C-alpha cells in the first residue's frame, strides 16, 4: 500500500454550515401477474473456460445477477431496497458514480423491503415525511438508478408517476407509472423531495406498488436506524427530482450462484 | 523512506456564530434556514468530503501535506472555514479560505474543491456563499 493511498481510505470529514446573508452583499408486464423490476441476467462463467485455473479459495462462481436500486437512509451507509432484489444472494454489490462496494443484508422485512449496509455512505441520506403523506394525483418520481443518468443529461425531471388512490392497499402506495426493470427498491420522491415509498412491483401495465413510507419507517426504527423525517420541502419547487434521486440512490446488484 | 501512518480526521462541529455588532445579519443559522438549503449544504459537504478523499494525485498530495504538517507551526490550522459559491448547474464557481503557509497546499485544496459538480442545482432563493467549517485532526494509530 502506498503512503498516498493509506489516508485516502481513512479520511473522515464533517463540517458546520452557515449560509451568507443578503445584507452583506452576498446575495446572490403482464396484466395478471405482479412483476418485480429486477430481472435475472446470465453472467459469463469464467471457470467453464478455464477449469484448471479455478481459484478454489476464491468467491463462488456467479451464474445470475439481479440489478435493482437502493437508497441511503442515514450517513452511516444504511440503505433501503426491495427485499426481492437482495434475498438469496451470494454477494451484493452497490455501485454509484464509478465506485462499487460490497454490501451486506442487515434485515429483511415481511413486506418487500430490506435494509442493507455498505461500509460508508456514497450519497445523500433520504428524508421521509413525518406525518403528511401524498394525496391522490400527486406527482411523484421513481426511477431505476441506471436510467437516471440519461435523464439528468436532458435536464432531469419533476415527476414521472402519479399517486393512485382508486385502488386501496393497506401497506402500499399505488402509482400510475410505467417504470420498468431495475426500479425495484427505488425511492418514490414526492413534490417536496420526501420519500413516500419504496418501489416493489408492477401489478398491471401502468400500476406499480411501492411499500409506503409508514411501513418503511417502522422497519428502519425497529432496526435502530436513525433516519430523517420532515414535512417541509427538502428542495425547491422547480428542482429536478431526478437529480435528488441520483444523489440518494445507487445500483444494487445481487450475484447469485 | 518515511511511511506515513495515521488517520486524517476532519471532525464535525457546528459553526457557532458570534457575529460582531453590525454583522448580526451576515449569516443564517443552519437550524433556521429552510430545509432545502440545509439539504443542499449537506450535499456540498458530502461532495467536498469525497473530493478530498479521492485517490488521485492532487488529493493524495494535499492529504499527505496535512498529515506531515499537522500540529506544526507551518501546518494547517485546526479549523478552516471555506466559503463556496455554486453555479446553477451545480459546479463550484469559487471557493475562498485563509491561505496556508504552503502556497502549493493552498492551491491544491482550491483545485480539489472546484473540480467537480455536486450533482444538483442550488435552490434558486438560497443565499450564497455557503460557509463550511472543517476541523483537521491527525489521529495516530
Automatic annotation (TrEMBL), chain A:
Lineage: Bacteria, Pseudomonadati, Pseudomonadota, Alphaproteobacteria, Hyphomicrobiales
Keyword annotations from UniProtKB, A to Z: Signal
Keyword Secreted applies: no
Protein name per the record: Trypsin-like peptidase
Pfam families the UniProt entry points to: Trypsin_2 (PF13365)
Signal peptide: 1-33
The keyword Secreted is annotated on this UniProt entry: no
Domain of life: Bacteria
Organism field: Bradyrhizobium macuxiense
InterPro entries for the chain: Peptidase_S1_PA
TrEMBL record, chain B:
Signal peptide: 1-24
Domain of life, source organism: Bacteria
Keyword annotations: Signal
Signal keyword on record: yes
Name of the protein in its database record: Energy transducer TonB
Native organism: Bradyrhizobium macuxiense
Amino acid at each position: 500500500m502506498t503512503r498516498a493511498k493509506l489516508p485516502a481510505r481513512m479520511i473522515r470529514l464533517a463540517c458546520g454550515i452557515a449560509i451568507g446573508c443578503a445584507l452583506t452583499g452576498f446575495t446572490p408486464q403482464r396484466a395478471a401477474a405482479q412483476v418485480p423490476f429486477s430481472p435475472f441476467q446470465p453472467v459469463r462463467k469464467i471457470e467453464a473456460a478455464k477449469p484448471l485455473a479455478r481459484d478454489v479459495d476464491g468467491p463462488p462462481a456467479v451464474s445470475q445477477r439481479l440489478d435493482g436500486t437502493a437508497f441511503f437512509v442515514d450517513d452511516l451507509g444504511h440503505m433501503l431496497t426491495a427485499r426481492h432484489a437482495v434475498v438469496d444472494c451470494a454477494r451484493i454489490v452497490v455501485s454509484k458514480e464509478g465506485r462499487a462496494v460490497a454490501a451486506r443484508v442487515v434485515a429483511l422485512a415481511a413486506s418487500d423491503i430490506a435494509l442493507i449496509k455498505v461500509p460508508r455512505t456514497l450519497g445523500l441520506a433520504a428524508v421521509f415525511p413525518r406525518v403528511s403523506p401524498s394525496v391522490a394525483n400527486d406527482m411523484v418520481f421513481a426511477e431505476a438508478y441506471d436510467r437516471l443518468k440519461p435523464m439528468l443529461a436532458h435536464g432531469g425531471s419533476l415527476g414521472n408517476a402519479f399517486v393512485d388512490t382508486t385502488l386501496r392497499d393497506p401497506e402500499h402506495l399505488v402509482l400510475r407509472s410505467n417504470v420498468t426493470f431495475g426500479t425495484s427498491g427505488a425511492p418514490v420522491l414526492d413534490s417536496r423531495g420526501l420519500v413516500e415509498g419504496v418501489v416493489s412491483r408492477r401489478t398491471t401495465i401502468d400500476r406499480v406498488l411501492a411499500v409506503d413510507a409508514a411501513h418503511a419507517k417502522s422497519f428502519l426504527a425497529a432496526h435502530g436506524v436513525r433516519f430523517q423525517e420532515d414535512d417541509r420541502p427538502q428542495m425547491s419547487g422547480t428542482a429536478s427530482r431526478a437529480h435528488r434521486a441520483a444523489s440518494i440512490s445507487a445500483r444494487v446488484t445481487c450475484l447469485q450462484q | 523512506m518515511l511511511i506515513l501512518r495515521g488517520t486524517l480526521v476532519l471532525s464535525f462541529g457546528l459553526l457557532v456564530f458570534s457575529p460582531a455588532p453590525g454583522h448580526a445579519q451576515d449569516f443564517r443559522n443552519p437550524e433556521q434556514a429552510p430545509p432545502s438549503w440545509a439539504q443542499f449544504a449537506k450535499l456540498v459537504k458530502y461532495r467536498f468530503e469525497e473530493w478530498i478523499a479521492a485517490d488521485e494525485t492532487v488529493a493524495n498530495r494535499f492529504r499527505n501535506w496535512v498529515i506531515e504538517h499537522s500540529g506544526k507551526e507551518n501546518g494547517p490550522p485546526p479549523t478552516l472555514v471555506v466559503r463556496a459559491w455554486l453555479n446553477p448547474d451545480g459546479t463550484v464557481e469559487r471557493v475562498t479560505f485563509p491561505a496556508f503557509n504552503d502556497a502549493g497546499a493552498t492551491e491544491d485544496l482550491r483545485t480539489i474543491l472546484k473540480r467537480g459538480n455536486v450533482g444538483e442545482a442550488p435552490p434558486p432563493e438560497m443565499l450564497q456563499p455557503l460557509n463550511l467549517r472543517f476541523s483537521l485532526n491527525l489521529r495516530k494509530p
